[in-house]
Automatic annotation (TrEMBL), chain A:
It comes from Quercus rubra. GO terms for molecular function: guanyl-nucleotide exchange factor activity; translation initiation factor activity. This is Translation initiation factor eIF2B subunit beta. Belongs to the eIF-2B alpha/beta/delta subunits family. GO terms for cellular component: eukaryotic translation initiation factor 2B complex. It comes from the Eukaryota. It holds the Pfam family IF-2B. SUPFAM superfamilies: NagB/RpiA/CoA transferase-like.
TrEMBL record, chain B:
This is Translation initiation factor eIF2B subunit delta. The lineage of its organism: Eukaryota, Viridiplantae, Streptophyta, Embryophyta, Tracheophyta. InterPro entries: IF-2B-related, IF_2B-like_C, NagB/RpiA_transferase-like. Residues 36-67, 217-229 have a biased composition (Low complexity). Belongs to the eIF-2B alpha/beta/delta subunits family.
Length: 409, 669
């Protein structure tokens, strides 16, 4: 356990010092850390899932607090929690069914009743609330709304039958699901890249902004399919990641032109499509991307150029943004835009009346409202911004939306 | 009559744009409802109208001539044709209101213009002016009474145009004391010329284009004219017919050129009146710029070039029509050639080198440097034997201009200034001695700099400062001299406001502005252009400079301006563009690609002060990788709330009006 604690602290400090760059790297590190947390945490013989959830939630809370701007951390923590819950539910269902099969001949009415209710509860919580299910639910089964205690009691009963094997099995399943998640994060750009040929045609002119691995793979995939197209890369000050992207793409044989960010408006009239990677996708379909993205999106709308966001599902955040320009943003060092040697005297608080004469604004993120986004291309297909909330329901359980707040018990 | 009137109304809407400011009530004279106009007091008017009727002159420009006198303009003064006649005090009260009736019935309005001129000019200077011609046209003394016949129309117009400029733009006007003398001198010369060459109306036309000259002329010769005027007025009616007959040949062509509208006046005046109108109209459109994808022309230009430029290896396909040269290679070469015998004047050479090295940048600075260099060059100029100053000096200036153009593509403001200078040279009276002509040109240039640039900036500052309130947060992009003056002036006035300077790569001119503003004690915020949508939340006004304003309202300015204006528009923040009127241009442009300037591509790959950013260091030779350094972009007029110019604060839709009324063909002064 010391081991895990050490790992947690390491990642926390990394996040806090902003040593981890990029949502993909963050997501992968978080998922790997949570995997080791799951595998090494000591679970009580009873009520394993709840304990596991608590453990993961604890770690997640620390990680999120370390860098609240990096939404991918929270996303992964929620995804892992969701996995645990799902496994738990399917476990219960299996157990119930198995139990009913084995107990079948034994006519104990009370037990029977109890397990019937349990199974209904498990199924109803597992299944999405479909109209069919809502209709089928008989009015007299008010007992389906189970209290946690009865569920736990029944689980306790069940686990006491074969505690060790069951616990191992459960943990193994969760871990393999988390492994799948990590695999998804690692390979999502390849899956997205496969969709490239559906969206890029010959002689197209594409503009991109900053650097994104997903975008790079997306464009390269189209290139490999013998599509020839021109590419403008805006450099994306103050990080200038666009330079790097342009270099990589040129090395792959794409016809690349680097432009300054200020020339985006001038060039966008000749562009067929804007393809960008983003930092996070919010539940309303808005995106948080590198600073300057909003400008690009506005220019694209002015010229009716499709603004396409390519993103892995790990960037999908179940939160709705409120004043995201401020609340989901952080300011970087002024030295990136202005040299301290020249202007340090004006930025000094001690001179004058206390307020510095010169402020430097250097935010790192920009929020693009959903109405400016034409399309999301994810590893599970293309979606319109207004559909994002529904995808979120698939990947996150509503109990986990707020992680910071500890459960009352 | 009807067709005539209809066609007159065709030209109406163009003028109505001026009326952004309350339209004068009596401008409707061209329409039937209000045929009675105040400004036809002179009995001579009737005669001229009759005469004109005979010639069946097509409808001309000056339809709104009688208007304008009064209500002028909050911001833009009334169009020049009208104003020249109208704001001088009308000496006679309207004799007979009914006259207007007959006039409007019988006459194309181009004659009305003449009427107005006659009626409104207090003295008989016109008669005098036209004397030389009237001798030719009709022997009767009465003939002199209608300029429509004998006097060259275009000349009248040309001379009258600046008058309007003078009076209406009076804010700007403070004539340098030395200026008047030269004018008087010149005018005298021209008068003599007139008498010498009665048959040739051309020199007269060329000479009389200035308001000041005209005014002085009138004053000077009022007495002389009076005698003749007396006689002419008496027999106006009778002479009308004769004169019209005589005048026919000239009139037939001239009015037709006028019908194109004031726009053509300039060119027709330059070329002489006897040109078919279609040609004039064609001349009128701005020349197409040199397209660098035209191989033969590029080759030709190269042979003439002083600056040896190596073409960039890796050219951006979209911009093949623009010059793409390696930057920084020419400078050492040129510097070494400085002391060699060269057709380029050393001062001009120096300015060219400063352009290349970037020591002089910014529209106004470049324009002033160029004009001052030309001033020096003119000072040192001497006409070679067997050549005339007008032609030879124009050729010289042309060679200088092409040299400067090779150093760095000319800005639109410089193009306008060059046009002004060339026009001035072309209009030099032949009688002037060389030294006089040089002094005249130098003072002209001086005046252009002081009035069109320096005073214009002052007026702009005065206007724009009224838009700054306490507590404002003003955003500006890059470094504009006009905006800087506005901010400093507002600060001097004690207004409490904060400045946000948005800057963009690769020039980072905003840092220089920031330095200067902080030095003056303004409280500033500095941000990269990418942060503009973050910072725009707190901004209450956006002030932008411009390299030029095109006549479709497009603001052609430092790259990034369009982005800032767009974001401001999105955040409902008013965008004020500050631009001197001499930078306006009648070109139109929809995007930033057809015409632009390409900077040094290497500036893109190097990020000053960020040595860690060196991804592109070795890549400039890669075939697939191109670097594009655009210098300008075009901001659509929808994003511009207001253009602050020396003629006042106007919406972008009024730019073509200003271009046509004031900037056209150097009505400048």
């Amino acid at each position: 356990m010391v081991d895990v604690q050490g790992l947690v602290n390491e990642l926390v400090s990394k996040l806090r010092r902003r040593k981890v760059e990029g949502s993909r790297a963050t997501a992968r590190l978080t998922a790997e850390l949570l995997r080791s947390v799951i595998s090494q945490s000591k679970l009580p013989p009873t009520n394993q899932p709840a304990a596991l959830i608590d453990a993961v939630r604890d770690v997640g809370e620390k990680l999120i607090a370390a860098n609240p701007i990096e939404l991918a951390v929270g996303n992964i923590v929620r995804r892992v929690l969701h996995i645990i819950r799902e496994e738990d539910h399917s476990n219960t269902r299996d157990a119930v069914e198995g139990f009913r099969l084995s107990v079948g001949g034994d006519n104990d009415y009370i037990v029977e009743q109890d397990h019937l209710n349990l199974s209904v509860a498990a199924q109803s919580s597992l299944c999405r609330p479909s109209l069919h299910a809502l209709l089928e639910r008989s009015p007299d089964s008010a007992t389906t709304y189970f209290t946690a205690t009865t569920e736990d009691d029944s689980e306790e009963k069940r686990k006491s039958l074969d505690p060790n094997a069951r616990s191992l099995e459960f943990r193994r399943k969760v871990i393999s699901a988390v492994n799948d998640l990590i695999e998804d994060i690692n390979t999502c750009h390849l899956v997205i890249a496969e969709l490239a040929v559906e969206h890029i045609h010959h002689n197209e002119v594409i503009l991109t902004f900053g650097r994104s691995r997903t975008v790079k793979e997306f464009l390269c995939a189209a290139k490999e399919k013998k599509r020839s197209f021109g590419l403008f890369v805006a450099e994306g000050a103050p990080k200038y990641q666009g330079h790097l992207l342009a270099k990589e793409l040129a090395a792959r044989g794409l016809q690349t032109t680097v432009i300054t960010d200020s020339a985006v408006f001038a060039m966008i009239s000749r562009v067929n499509m804007v393809i960008v990677g983003v930092h996070a996708v919010m539940a309303n379909g808005g995106v948080i991307g590198p600073v300057g993205l909003n400008m690009v999106a506005l220019a694209a709308r002015k010229h009716a150029v499709p603004f396409v966001v390519v993103t892995g599902t790990h960037k999908l955040c179940p939160l709705y943004p409120n004043n995201p320009e401020v609340s989901l943003n952080e300011m970087r060092s002024p030295s990136e835009v202005l040299s301290f040697e020249e202007f340090s005297d004006c930025m000094d608080y001690r001179i004058g009346t206390g307020a510095p004469q010169l402020h430097v604004g250097n935010p790192s993120f920009d929020y693009v409202p959903p109405e400016l986004v034409s399309l999301f291309i994810t590893d599970i297909g293309g979606y319109y911004p207004s559909y994002m909330y529904r995808l979120i329901a698939d990947y996150y359980s509503s109990d986990d939306l707020v992680i910071q707040q500890k459960p009352a018990s | 009559m009807d067709p005539r009137r209809a066609s007159r109304t065709v030209s109406d809407p163009k003028i109505r744009q001026v009326g952004f400011f309350a339209p004068p009530p009596d401008r409707s004279f061209s329409g039937p409802p209000d045929p009675i106009s105040t400004s036809t007091p002179n009995p001579a008017a009737a005669t001229t109208t009759a005469a004109a009727a005979n010639t069946s002159s097509p409808p001309p420009i000056s339809d709104l001539s009688p208007s304008g006198n009064s209500l002028s303009p909050v911001m833009i003064p009334p169009p020049r044709h009208s104003s020249d006649t109208t704001h001088r005090p009308v000496p006679f009260p309207p004799v007979s209101p009914l006259r207007r009736d007959t006039l409007s019935l019988t006459v194309g309005s181009y004659n009305n213009n003449n009427n107005n001129i006659i009626s409104s000019s207090p003295t008989a200077s016109f008669y005098d002016e036209s004397k030389g011609i009237t001798v030719k046209v009709s022997p009767t003394p009465a003939a002199s009474s209608f300029p429509g016949g004998g006097f060259d129309l275009t000349a009248v117009k040309a001379s009258s145009v600046p008058a309007s400029g003078l009076t209406t733009v009076s804010v700007v006007k403070t004539l340098p004391p030395g200026f008047t003398e030269t004018i008087v001198e010149k005018v005298g010369g021209s008068v003599e010329m007139q008498n010498d060459l009665p048959a040739n109306s051309k020199p007269l036309k060329e000479r009389t284009s200035k308001a000041e000259r005209r005014a002085l002329q009138e004053a000077q010769r009022a007495a002389k004219a009076a005698a003749k005027a007396e006689g002419s007025k008496l027999s106006a009616t009778t002479s009308g017919a004769v004169a019209s007959a005589n005048a026919k040949p000239t009139k037939a062509t001239k009015p037709s050129s006028q019908k194109n509208d004031s726009a053509t006046v300039a060119s027709s005046e330059k070329k002489g009146g006897d040109r078919p109108p279609e040609k004039d109209r064609k001349k009128d459109a701005p020349h197409p710029r040199m397209q660098y994808d035209d191989k033969s022309r590029v080759e030709k230009a190269k042979r003439r070039a002083v600056v040896k430029q190596t073409e960039a290896r890796n050219r951006v396909e979209l911009f093949r029509h623009l010059p793409q040269y390696e930057h920084g290679t020419q400078l050492p070469d040129l510097e070494s050639k400085f002391f060699q015998l060269d057709p380029v004047h050393p001062v001009v050479y120096k300015v060219g080198l400063q352009y290349i090295s970037g020591d002089i940048s910014g529209g106004n600075a470049r324009c002033i440097a160029m004009l001052q260099a030309f001033q020096e060059a003119i000072k040192d100029y001497s006409t070679p034997d067997e050549k005339t100053l007008t032609r030879d000096l124009t050729a010289k200036i042309n060679s200088y201009v092409s040299f400067l153009n090779e150093c760095r593509p000319l800005s639109i403001s410089m193009g306008n200034a060059i046009r002004f200078l060339k026009n001035r040279i072309a209009k030099l009276p032949l009688t002037l001695s060389e030294s006089e002509a040089k002094a005249f040109l130098q003072s002209d240039i001086e005046q252009f700099i002081s009035e069109k640039i320096i005073l214009a900036d002052k007026v702009i500052v005065k206007h724009a400062v009224t838009k700054i309130r306490d507590g404002d947060v003003l955003l500006t992009h890059g470094s504009s001299s006009a905006v800087e003056m506005i901010l400093l002036h507002a600060h001097e006035l004690g207004k409490q406001f904060r400045v946000v300077i948005v800057d963009s790569r690769p020039k980072l001119e905003g840092q220089l502005l920031l330095r200067r503003l902080v030095g003056k004690g303004l409280s500033c915020t500095y941000a990269n252009i990418n942060a503009v949508s973050y910072i725009m939340h707190e901004v209450t006004r956006v002030f932008l400079g411009a390299s030029s304003v095109l006549s479709n309202g497009t603001v052609y300015s430092r790259v990034g301006t369009a982005c800032v204006a767009m974001v401001a528009h999105e955040f409902r923040v008013p965008v004020l563009v500050c631009c001197e009127a001499y930078k306006f241009h009648e070109r139109v442009q929809l995007d930033s690609i057809c015409s632009n300037e390409l900077g040094d591509p290497d500036a893109i790959s190097k990020v000053p002060g960020r040595e860690d950013i060196n991804y592109l260091d070795g890549c400039t030779n890669s075939e697939n990788l191109q670097l594009l350094n655009l210098i300008y972009d075009a901001t659509p007029s929808d994003y511009v709330s207001m253009i602050v110019t020396d003629y006042g604060m106007v919406p972008p839709t009024s730019v073509p009006v200003i271009v046509r009324e004031y900037c056209r063909d150097q009505v400048w002064i």
